[in-house]
Design a protein that fits this description.
The chain has 6 helices and 8 strands. It is of the alpha/beta class and about 240 residues long. It has a single domain, classed as Rossmann fold (3-Layer(aba) Sandwich). The two termini are about 20 Å apart.
């Protein structure tokens, strides 16, 4: 099993990405969507672990328009402009390129998406844009899925076809209990198969071993829940 850095041509340029696979054969595909801190060794370790269970895992640099991984500034305030430029239209265009790449290297058929922090919102947009190509959608410590914006992600729940799992962070200001209730209502009305849970005591960022919010128990729970979802959806 190994990881490598590859490049994906998109309508707006070239996205650098990590790719991990257990061997040279084709396996079901997983699109891994990073948190705000971008591609880095922690992400590479996470996708290698997922790949070890028998998947081809692609983790693109969602901020490729601003530069390659490792060249971008740190700090949320510095990265906010890069987040804001990920409009639904750009996400859909990028998403097609990512799914097309997985189609070429993974086993034929729908893929799964797992997203972290802002990556969960990006994953939702891609799954809604290409419902026939996404069999499962997972999100961990995701925020901003419910807003007052007419284009708030939760308003497109009826476009999803994937099985959905969310593991929210406890007392997360970016996804409050009230917002989670609104999201669950939207998922219910869309008649989707889903589970929505709050990881008690886990802070926003709990899966990422290189941030202060990391919670080992919650991080391991995330791998277990994700693994079960992938097995159900992609086996």
């Amino acid at each position: 099993m190994g990881t490598e850095t590859i490049e994906i041509v998109t309508p707006d340029g070239v996205a650098d990405a990590y790719l991990a696979r257990p061997d040279g054969r084709r396996h079901p595909g997983v699109l891994f969507l990073m948190d705000v801190h971008g591609l880095r060794p922690t992400i590479e370790e996470m996708i290698a672990r997922i790949a070890g269970d028998g998947y081809v895992v692609l983790a693109p640099n969602l901020f490729y328009r601003a530069g390659r991984a490792g060249t971008l500034p740190s700090g949320f305030d510095n990265l906010r402009p890069f987040i804001e430029e990920l409009t639904p239209e750009r996400i859909a265009a990028d998403g097609r390129a990512y799914l097309d790449y997985l189609h070429d290297v993974a086993e034929p058929g729908p893929v799964a998406i797992t997203g972290y922090c802002m990556g969960g919102r990006v994953g939702w947009r891609i799954a809604a844009a290409y419902p026939d190509r996404v069999a499962a959608l997972a999100g961990f410590h995701v925020g901003g899925l419910v807003t007052d914006d007419p284009e708030s992600p939760h308003r497109s729940a009826d476009k999803l076809r994937a099985e959905v799992y969310f593991g929210f962070a406890d007392q997360d200001r970016s996804m409050t209990g009230e917002q989670i209730a609104v999201l669950e209502k939207a998922l219910d009305e869309a008649k989707l198969t889903y589970r929505s849970e709050v990881y008690a005591g886990a802070q926003h960022g709990y899966t990422m071993a290189d941030v202060p919010a990391y919670d080992q128990a919650a991080g391991e729970r995330h791998f277990q829940e994700l693994g079960a979802l992938l097995e159900r959806a992609l086996s």
